[in-house]
Amino acid sequence: MTPIKRTVSAELFTKSKTYFPGGVNSPVRAFKSVGGTPLFIKKGDGAYLWDEDGNKFIDFCCSWGPLILGHNNPNVYNSVISAMANGASFGAPTRLENQLAELILSRISFIDKLRFVSSGTEAVMSAIRLARGYSGKSKILKFEGCYHGHVDSLMVKAGSGLVTFGTSSSAGVPEPLACETIVLPLNDTEKLRKTLVQFKEELACVIIEPIPANNGLLLQDKSFLSCLREWCSELGILLVFDEVISGFRVAFGGAAELYGITPDIVVYGKIIGGGLPVGAYGAKSEIMSFVSPDGPVYQAGTLSGNPVAMSAGIAQLTTCNQPKFYEDQEARTKTMVDLINQHAASKKYNFEIVQIGSIFWISFAGKKRIQDADAINPDMSKFNELHGALLNRGVYLGPSGYEVGFVSFAHTPEILSMATSLFCEALDDIYS
User: Fold this and answer.
1) CA-to-CA distance for 129 and 121, rounded, in angstroms?
2) Active-site residue, 147 included
3) Ordered structural domains, the chain, with CATH
4) At what angle do helices 307-320 and 325-346 cross, to 10 degrees?
5) Cis before residue 293, ω within 30 degrees of 0?
6) In the prediction, which pLDDT does 1 show?
7) How far apart are CA 251 and CA 329, in angstroms?
8) At what angle do helices 413-431 and 325-346 cross, to 10 degrees?
9) Which residues are 136's β-sheet partners?
10) What is the pLDDT of residue 169?
11) How far, in Å, CA of 47 to CA of 219, rounded?
């Protein structure tokens, strides 16, 4: 198949490399994983993207998840325009903050109060500081394969040994800070129990993506999450759910609602702002009372609660709050995934799409269930081939085999049927 034209994108990329490190403002956009020139996007509408060369794609990236209603949703668009007519930013309270908070808190019973910030990373950073300030303890525990933004104390990886302190996974993170973080494998209750008991007097919190979706889709046994909740309560350790991806995506109340497991602190991302820069963290009143100006844990932000982002969030989450919204999202996604998997199985391809709700991940491990990051084959050559074959057929995925894909409200059954056929064609192409 003839490759898509990338002339304009190539020219823009050449110029952008004189302005930005690697030519991008976020590393994965550089297409280094999949090769070739990154696509410079010109516009999006519904389930589709267009690049600067005029190529049209069915978009399964959805701005890495938050565009659950698709691009340029009319309700979100009109809400943003209405807010902009009154001003883009004030650095002061607005009615819109109250309205979005009420919409969220009225449906999510395990948090009493929240604090809006400007990104998921900022929300995680603030949640960790709150856990330390509330508990009076300094260490945190995270899991290998869970990504929580570029927070210094969470940019760590596992060292050697049964129970290990983290080592820096990025330059610029001091080792003494990384050593305040303990890193464990996912889905290992024996190591988890031993570590929690050993460090209970030092651990401020355990942080986890209840649906790990930043390094593959590492679906955990519910029993692992249940044990985590039980043991944190027993040992006086706060449990933080990072629901930047899963929040308002798999259910209105995220994985906490889906699994019926309640965290002490929860973190949300840009989905609550219709894709605009926003995040939030929340907890019960007792914990949130430690946040400034009520308490001693300082956190602030000039653009926190930005009225444009708040208005977009109100419009988006009002739609997500409609009856059967998430059931429909899951059903349409499952139909597409099942048909592609059936095709792959019939051809005996070593391939399977893993799915939960409207999130999916492309695995080249066949029927092998992957629950931890170490089980992912680092050879991404087949994904890279598939990514290129799909681009040439008009299907856009995030440019990394470790990233997940998303289905939006705008992906109608007809569009998903078309995407299914294109996926199957692309698979036949790379396995021929």
Assistant:
1) 12
2) yes
3) 7-72+324-431 (3.90.1150.10), 74-320 (3.40.640.10)
4) 70
5) yes
6) 78
7) 10
8) 30
9) none
10) 67
11) 26
Contact 201, 238 (CB under 8 A): no
- Other Cβ atoms less than 10 A from the Cβ of 131: the count is 28
Q: How far is it, in rounded angstroms, from Cα 252 to Cα 325?
A: 9
348 is catalytic: no
Positive/negative CA dihedral, 306, 309, 312, 318? negative
| Radius of gyration for the alpha carbons in the chain, expressed in angstroms and rounded | 22
For residue range 110-153, what is the model confidence (pLDDT) as tens digits?
A: 999 999 999 999 999 999 999 999 999 999 999 998 989 888 77
Distance between CA atoms of residues 40 and 106, nearest Å = 40
Q: What is the DSSP annotation of 81-135?
A: HHHHTT-S--SS--HHHHHHHHHHHTT-TT-SEEEEESSHHHHHHHHHHHHHHHH
d(C-alpha 304, C-alpha 47), whole Å: 29
Confirm whether pTM is higher than 0.85: yes
Per annotation, catalytic residue among 51, 242, 264, 372:
242
Question: Which residue among the candidates 259, 270, 281, 382 is catalytic per the annotation?
Answer: 270
Task: Based on the residue annotation, tell me whether 270 is a catalytic residue of this protein.
Answer: yes
Other C-beta atoms lying within 10 Å of the C-beta of residue 236: 11
Taking the C-alpha atoms of residue 306 and residue 303, their distance in angstroms, rounded to an integer, is 5
Alpha helix ranges (H) inside 136-270: 175-178, 189-198, 222-235, 254-259
Residue type, 338: D
Q: What's residue 109's pLDDT? A: 94
d(CA 72, CA 38) in angstroms, rounded, equals 22
Considering only CA atoms, which of 64, 32, 126, 79 is closest in space to residue 403? Answer: 64
pLDDT one-digit tens code per residue, 208-248 = 999 999 999 999 999 999 999 999 999 999 999 999 999 99
Half-sphere exposure at residue 341, Cβ-oriented, CA atoms within 13 angstroms? 17
Give me the count of residues in the chain: 432
**pLDDT at site 232:** 98
From the candidates 147, 281, 326, 402, give the one annotated as an active-site residue.
147
Q: Using the structure block, give the residue that is written with the tokens 């992906």.
A: 411
- Edge-to-edge strand list for the sheet holding 139-143: 113-117, 279-283, 265-268, 238-242, 203-208, 139-143, 181-184, 164-165
Query: Edge-to-edge, what's the strand order for the sheet holding 48-51?
Result: 41-45, 48-51, 56-59, 395-396
Could you give the 3-state DSSP secondary structure of residue 289? coil
Q: Hey, is 154 helix, strand or coil?
A: helix
Ranges of residues in the chain with a pLDDT under 70 are 157-169
What 8-state DSSP symbol labels residue 306? -
